[in-house]
Write a structure and sequence with these properties.
Number of strands: 0
Oligomer: single chain
Radius of gyration: 20 Å
Helix content: over 70%
């Protein structure tokens, strides 16, 4: 029986293996993120949201600093082998952090160091992982595969934090880190099994990009101004709105006087909206530029409702709306960029896109933490509403002044 169009990429057995293994690994990722944030705000500091912001900063800033080599590596190095190395390194970092917590010698600087190490490894892993999807599926299935990949990630976000909240209360954060180590095993197996001969287009990508340097990715983007505008809007939103570990942990401990289980629940509620957003994008064709410039307004409205939510349950419901709007924005934008880029440059362009998203998150994290500590967690969410409105105005102005007249002049 043929699969529905929403899940058509799953008809590929290689992609089924990849996405299933990645789902288990993603659960482990969210186990660790939840435990790490809770360890910092509840055990290693006196409920300091700024410290969580520093962790986020250290984890994401390498995306910018290492950009000259990460995109090049994703295009020039065998992506499967590169991912094997990055996954092994991530498992090792989780083991180190879990060990020092279980030995009861953990200090805040240990978490900072592990976060920075994870950020360095992730800077190589993320663009390779995004570009690897186009090696596993046919070009016509890339939009669907990207959406299903994202749905897998956020389905894990639904499960992982909820499990982490229970395990932290029962076992403590150290064993949660150790459990994450185990979840790397299925993805490592999948990467071993997916030999180069099973992949689509890998040799072609490596051959065509051999003489092109890192700066070629920027030159490529510079010729496509729509991509520049989209990256600017994504940067404005992710710098504040996507720093949810900072403002959610602050809301949990300061506003709702909650515990780890409630913090995990809030992340899971956001994941419900993210899954809905991924399903919507998976069922759509390639997103249009006009659709993309409207999405920041939905993010702004969701952030406003979240900042004004008076009770914990209403706040949790609004987290679902925020997850839906941000997921529609990020998946649709990345799909548009990936399909607008020739395969030879896809690794470098995706590295720039991911560096924009992760780097802006890193740069915004200390600011969000400072606002939460100085003015209250609700004001840090309100700041996200302002940044999303700014993104909407920039995108709309470009669409009306440049993009739409250009399309009309071309008769499209």
């Amino acid at each position: 029986m043929p699969l529905p169009a929403t899940f058509r990429a799953l008809s590929n057995p290689h992609y089924r293996l990849w996405v299933s293994a990645a789902f288990i690994s993603n659960i482990g990722t969210w186990l660790q993120r939840t435990a790490q944030d809770w360890l910092v705000i509840s055990e290693l500091t006196s409920q300091n949201a700024a410290a969580v912001g520093v962790v986020v900063f250290l984890q994401f800033i390498p995306q910018i600093l290492l950009l000259p080599v990460t995109g090049w590596a994703a295009d020039r190095i065998d992506r499967r082998k590169l991912l094997l190395l990055t996954q092994l390194a991530m498992a090792g970092l989780a083991f180190i952090l879990g060990s020092i917590v279980l030995l009861d010698v953990v200090q805040l600087w240990h978490v900072y160091a592990c976060a920075l190490g994870l950020g360095i490894v992730s800077a190589f892993d993320a663009p390779a992982r995004h570009a690897f999807v186009s090696d596993v599926v046919a070009e016509k299935d890339v939009p669907n595969a990207v959406s299903l990949n994202s749905m897998s990630f956020h389905s894990a976000r639904l499960i992982g934090p909820a499990i982490a909240g229970v395990l932290i209360a029962v076992w403590g954060t150290g064993w949660v880190f150790m459990l994450n180590v185990i979840t790397f095993a299925p993805l490592l197996f999948a990467l071993f099994w997916l030999g180069r001969q099973t992949l689509l287009g890998l040799n072609e990508t490596r051959t065509n990009s051999g003489k092109a340097g890192f700066l070629a990715g920027f030159r490529y983007i510079n010729q496509r101004r729509e991509i520049i505008v989209l990256l600017c809007t994504v940067a404005l939103i992710t710098s504040v709105v996507m720093n949810f570990p900072v403002y959610l942990s602050a809301m949990t401990v300061h506003v709702f006087q909650g515990h780890a289980g409630q913090y995990g629940m809030l992340i899971s509620m956001m994941a419900i909206g993210s899954i809905l957003g991924a399903l919507v994008t998976a069922s759509r064709a390639q997103p249009t530029f006009g659709f993309l410039v409207c999405l920041p307004f939905a993010v702004a409205l969701s952030a406003l409702l979240l900042a004004l939510a008076s009770s914990f349950m209403w706040f949790a419901v609004c987290m679902t709306l925020l997850g839906l709007s941000t997921q529609l924005l990020t998946i649709s934008t990345f799909t548009f960029i990936q399909l607008s880029t020739t395969k030879a440059f896809r690794g470098r362009v995706m590295a720039i896109a991911l560096a924009t998203m992760m780097g802006s998150t890193a740069l915004g994290a200390p600011l969000v933490g400072w606002v939460a500590d100085e003015f209250g967690a609700r004001w840090s969410i309100g700041l996200g509403c302002v940044s999303a409105i700014s993104a909407f105005l920039i995108g709309t102005l470009y669409w009306r002044v440049v993009y739409q007249p250009k399309r009309l002049s071309q008769g499209q």
